[in-house]
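Fold these two proteins, one after the other.
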Amino acid sequence: MRFQFHSVLGAVSAPILALGLLVAPLQAQTSIVQTAVANGNFTTLVTALQATGLDVPLSGPGTFTVFAPTDAAFAALPPGALQDLLLQRNLPTLSSILTYHVAGQTLNSTQVLALTTIDTLNGQRVDVSLVGAQPKIDSANLIITDIVCTNGIIHVLDAVLSPNLNNIPQTAAAVGGFNTLLTAVTAASLATTLSGPGPFTVFAPTDTAFSTLPVNRLLLPVNIPRLVNILTYHVVPGRIYADQLSNNQVLSTVNGQTLLVTKVGNQTFVNGVLIAAADVETSNGNIHVIGSVLLPPIF
């Protein structure tokens, strides 16, 4: 049986059906931004790229994969959301959203669908899945693939992707169960640092984990240096995902000491403490949830 489709993208002709996708012809003639402009169905995306200055790198040399929401995808955002993001004060947030749609390597549709996650220029990862015959990037449908450009490739989405825009403390507060940790972080004057650009990886003890310690004593002014030492022992520079942790790996912490990662089957431990929940992504790093407080050797 033959299927005929009329692409929603004017510049794409004669697409074919593959895994429920519309696949564009493989012709590289213009850059990513030039292709998007010429197409006519990415007007909002181009406007956003120009507002943030991201049109410059995406017009130059490089190898990029852009998951491009159509104008219809942007139009589906809550009323006023896009206009608010285009305000000067919100351009850093808009840039964070846009870079979440860009990978720093060229991945064709076959390569994309062979993955479960993709690292983006935002620092966070998008999830790749197949629901029935429909490929998805996070919760957005991948509707057209393989628009090849001189500096990368465009795959088309029917929705705008949403990274976590909250930093580590904000995310911990939103998730819940970290009230003691957040109180300690504030008392130790570490909240500003953990709210900054980072990135950081935090092995975060739950409230239950802290219940075994004399927290009230640690919060006394005289004990704040000791509290700082404990808290910074839970923080590692950089954004580290669970699949980047290996058996007998040694991690250098912010307090200058080290943590030992071990693996038993599918379980991962840090200093013998099980990582109960991994990869809670934030705008400036990752949180891995642990059920005990890690005490540094020099305490």
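Now the second one:
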Amino acid sequence: MHVWGIARAFGGHVVLRVEDHDRTRCRPEYEAALLDDLEWLGFVPDEGQIAQFRHGATPLRQSDNGAAYGDALVRLDAAQRVYACTCSRRDVLAITGPTGPGEEAVYPGTCRVARKPGDSTRARRVQLEDGEVRFDDLALGAQRQAPSHDCGDVLLRDRFGHWTYQCAVVVDDVNQDIDVVIRGEDLLSSTGRQIVLARMLGRVVPPLYLHHPLIRHADGRKLSKAANDTSLRELRAAGADAASLIGEAAKRCGLRHAPDRLAASDVARLFV
């Protein structure tokens, strides 16, 4: 809702991108359900038409875009910033100790020091440039992050050969000229490392970022299918209509005081 509303209100255009980089979790039926939901709600992208995804390969689907991520890896490797990493998450936690809720384990650079041979694993990390990153979030204001200290070296490809979220979204944002990124506030901590990685790939001016609140349960938990939260498909089957659901979402996001019916074409007026 935020993406379409802000883009329409301020003259931008929406790029639909399917981020299915994790092939162990993503399935064709999940993508089909996503496309069906967007079409039913009335949210029409400007680039990456729904029919484009339904009829074949597209660079806007990350599982079809591996060559671009491979090219980025080669460029970073040429700058001598990439190394093989055999550490699992369990290995990292054994060194750093357990993390608390919402905390991230900082990779300590074990394999960077050990210099593991390239054929020991398909996993690759990149050593980030040092320094502090400052940016103004359009919703949350001034931010300061130190990625090399906060998260350590970033995993680009895992041991199964799958490209990671951090790698794929940065390369896509660079190659697709994304100049505004709108996403949930749970991804705020990724921003600094993504700005640094993009800079290492040649992007001088980073995108603008807006991190919006998530729709949560009353106790603060995120909505999750794993927690048996109801999907849009289930709500549709139960007789819900698109305008009612968009209105309810607008209320829960704090954009309206009451859950009045709202068409997708009218979402832009919530942001002006």
